[in-house]
Amino acid sequence: MAGEPTAPVAPSLAGMPGVNKAVAAKLAKIGLRSQEDLALHLPLRFEDETLITPVAAAPPGVSVQCEVTIISSDVAFRPRRQLVARAQDDAGDLLVLRFLNFYPSQQKQLQPGAHLRVFGEIRHGFFGAEMVHPRCQKVEPDEALPQTLTPVYPTTAGVGQGTMRRLVQRALTVADLSETLPEALLRTHKLAPFADSVRLLHQPPHVEFGESIERVQQAAWQRVRFDELLAQQISLRRAYVRRREHTAPRLPSTGELTNALLTSLPFALTAAQQRVCTEIRQDLAQAHPMQRLLQGDVGSGKTVVAALAMLQAVENGYQAALMAPTEILAEQHYLKLQQWLPPLGIEVAWLTGSLKKKDKTAMLEAVASGQARVVVGTHALIEDTVSFKQLGLAVIDEQHRFGVRQRLALRQKTIQVETTSGAADTAGPTGTAGTASSVHQLMMSATPIPRTLAMSLYADLDVSVIDELPPGRTPIRTRLVTAARREEVVARVHEACLGGHQAYWICPLVDESETLDLQNAIATYEALRTELPDIHVGLVHGRMKADEKSATMEAFGRNDIQLLVSTTVIEVGVDVPNATLMVIEHAERFGLAQLHQLRGRVGRGAAESSCILMYAPPLSEMARARLKVIFENTDGFEIARHDLQLRGPGEFIGARQSGLPMLKYADLEDPVLIEAARTAAEAMLRDYPDHAERHLQRWLAGAEELLKA
Predict the structure, then answer these.
(1) How does 232-267 read in b/e, with b if 16+ C-beta sit within 10 Å?
(2) If exposure means fewest CB atoms within 10 Å of the residue's CB, which of 259, 299, 489, 603 is most exposed?
(3) What is d(CA 537, CA 707) in angstroms, rounded to the nearest whole number?
(4) Ramachandran angles phi, psi of 693, nearest 5°
(5) Mind listing the pLDDT tens digit for each residue in 71-104?
(6) What whole-number distance in Å separates Cα of residue 95 and Cα of residue 40?
(7) How far apart are CA 75 and CA 86, in angstroms?
(8) Which fold has domain 51-145?
(9) Where does CATH 2.40.50.140 sit in the chain?
(10) Which fold has domain 476-633?
(11) Handedness of CA 453, 603, 311, 321 (dihedral sign)
């Protein structure tokens, strides 16, 4: 019932039978802090100790259990010190047990006459049938066999399988496995009972061992995965609702500045850009803070959408800030906004850590006074010295590259609001003075997120997607070339540059590395200058001074430089329509998202463009898979889906740095289950809040606080 009391916080494992402080600390490292955690610590796989296999009948390549009697046991010293025991089963067939590392207790266990059950893979060699490092258990001749399969658990150093099994078995008898879902939801989603499901996943019956074990456990897995997703969705939806309880300045669109910008642009917005602009425009007009993630593939036109959102804030007398992770990306945004906004009478400020003191002071004063209505910069925007007069909208580009605190720091910059008496008061997002007000936030990402991942891990945000490219963009041809054909690639670059176009040459390192045999940017720059004396070659990398990087990028933009050698600092934001050729050296060393972003630096004009991926064989399986994906696909969302499959969700979204606990059991490629969990989460929060609280306590146990960022 909805009025049921919430479950108490589970006590620590320390001090419980079989768990001292040292063991409790080791268990905590893998997230096991309570009996409930142990009960939900599910096996990786199972071993069948319910059967005895005769030595002569053991199949090759499969671990089996044999029951044997030790005939002899000796320590051999050639070719190395090892314990060798000879044993035989009831049929009289011999089995050699070999231990390359052993303890005195094992020598004692393997004394002649001992009756053992040994588990391992039997191999046939010079000495006949042999098990190396089998698991041994001393038993009586007629001792009963187990009735369930033996689980193998994820564990940590210092906690063996035997200890883990004992702890989990005890937890299954004492942990609270009562239902946290109301009966109505159990019926609606046709879910198996929770306690029965958990016990079946720990102890499947031996008669079902083999391929059918998955079928027997299917309903149990469905229940556990659903519950895990449900806890995540409840937590994220609750965070979403709490954010909407905050107030924010209403920023309705007057059209005064936004229409002026649209009229001045030499292009028309795509249907997708218009759609997301409408979503953002409606959000900004609300009295609660916008929290919207804007996704768009490489070159889809996110910057102009952000500019229109910022102008909507300016139309209402507020300031807007755009923060980017790198100086090159921030400067690209600044230069583009400098083309668009000053003609409309809007001053744009530029703040980075490399500004000279005099220039930085002037910029800070312009921001604090409100003279600069739009501010663009890097992490410098969140320094204590930066103070806005009235910040209404914070735009964060490539948001996944910033940590939680960095994103919050910009959103929480002080703003001025009007009190009921008409006087200006200062208030932050907590609203300690005047009228409490938060800053609207628009986060942008050119690294697409697969739909199922967005549904699951970004349920606390509103998501907009620009899913089409501007007209006139030509498809980019991708080619795979071995490093042995470098001379041909150089000739292709030479041809493109003499034909009036420009090219990029990307290297993974700046300086020489003794450990990685990679071409570095500086050496490549020098080599290409020698090989191509009749074209201008430039160099840009992260260790250059900001003014040097800016000068080089400006020269490339003017076509004073035809070939730009660079590291991945030009991964995002660089827009040179005349660049039609991209060479990525040691492409096997790059991730899929990076390869896609780098490739997107070309193909931004009407001319046919190519991306050459140079690789050094032999390739690992993962590298081969990545290059196959990037070669066969140009759609960023499809590439992201493959990336998720190759790397797994933990690594894929690790850069979000949200602190959100990763899913252990749920499948993020199952949109039907995710959608069901979303629907159930809304019903739980609306109709069964106490059940929702108990469910969160079971699955997140305090980790939900991390979501407040």
Answers:
(1) bbbbbbbbeeebeebbbbebebeeebbebbbeeeee
(2) 259
(3) 47
(4) -65, -45
(5) 999 998 888 889 999 999 999 999 999 998 888 8
(6) 39
(7) 12
(8) OB fold (Dihydrolipoamide Acetyltransferase, E2P) (2.40.50)
(9) 51-145
(10) Rossmann fold (3.40.50)
(11) positive
Distance of CA 421 to the CA centre of its chain: 48
Q: Which residue type is seen at 571? A: E
Q: Are 328 and 569 a contacting pair, CB within 8 Å?
A: yes
- Sorted by sequence, the CB contacts under 8 Å of residue 706 that are 6+ apart come out as 658, 659, 660, 661
Both tokens assigned to 681: 């989460």
In the chain, CATH 3.40.50.300 covers 256-466, 476-633
Q: Map tokens 């004492």 to a residue.
A: 174
d(C-alpha 507, C-alpha 505), whole Å: 7
Nearest CA-CA partner of 565 in 545, 537, 542: 537
Sheet holding 440-445, edge to edge: 348-351, 374-377, 319-323, 391-396, 440-445, 291-296, 462-466
Predicted TM-score (pTM) of this structure: 0.70
Tens digit of pLDDT for each residue in 114-154? 999 999 999 988 888 999 999 999 999 889 998 888 899 99
CATH superfamily, with its number, for domain 256-466: P-loop containing nucleotide triphosphate hydrolases (3.40.50.300)
Cα 433 to the chain's mean position, in Å? 38
DSSP secondary structure letters along 227-295? HHHHHHHHHHHHHHHHHHTS--------SHHHHHHHHHSSSPPPHHHHHHHHHHHHHHTSSS--EEEEE
Residue 116's beta-bridge partner residues? 68, 138
C-alpha distances out from residue 373 to 285, 290, 308, 410, 632, Å:
19, 19, 13, 16, 44
